[in-house]
Amino acid sequence: MQAMPKQRRNLPVPREGNLHNNRVSDEGAGVQARAGPLQEIRPPLQRGKEDAGDLEKLTELAYLGYADREMAERLGCSVSHLRYVRRKLGLKKPRGRKGKVYLIEGSLDGIRYRKTPLYDWLILWRSEAEALLEALACPKHPVYVDLKQELSENMAHVKAWLSNWLREAAKHIAIVEVKPLEKLRMK
């Protein structure tokens, strides 16, 4: 038995790049309507200083969403929008692993620090984190800092001692590396 050759169906070619030429009018009769060429849905990407600032702001808001959702929403970002922005920017949720470098939430200067017992508390207590940032020697530059592990982790679990503990922790900050802002943005 010979197999029958497959027949090709001739499909109608859309006019002027429009895929939906057949429209039904209110009366129910099929009307062949001509539509213009497809419109560009998204505006073309514009690369410039403004976009770099927007990207930086989105990154900041996305990280901020992990720490303080209410503040992020007050700044005009819903939680679902933050999730979308994080996916678009390729940001991963910060995890508490030793030796990994994290961005301090809400920091405009890109200050980074290594994982310590202080990490979780910086997320929960943003006002206390501001006092810690003021204690840094170079607040205007991205700074890698390392808190000495000699601080007792048990003290972090006592909220009443938190303010004193953070002030004490600021004395133990050692600057590991200072990078110019441009070099950090280039990466």
Label this structure with key terms.
187 residues; four-stranded mixed sheet; alpha+beta; 2 domains
Mean pLDDT equals 48
3D shape? elongated
In total, how many domains does the architecture comprise?
A: 2
Low-confidence stretches: 16-50, 94-129, 136-162, 173-187
Task: Report the count of strand segments.
Answer: 6
Word description of this protein:
The strands form 2 sheets. Strands 3-4-5-6 form a 4-stranded mixed beta sheet. It has a two-stranded antiparallel ribbon with strand order 1-2. The chain is built from 7 helices and 6 strands, in the order ββαααββααβαβα. With 187 residues, the chain is an alpha+beta fold. Helix content is 36%, strand content 12%. It is elongated and about 80 Å long. The chain has helices spanning 49-67, 69-74, 79-89, 118-124, 126-134, 162-171, 181-186, and strands spanning 22-24, 30-32, 101-103, 112-114, 143-147, 173-178. The protein has 2 domains: 48-93, no CATH class; 96-187, no CATH class.
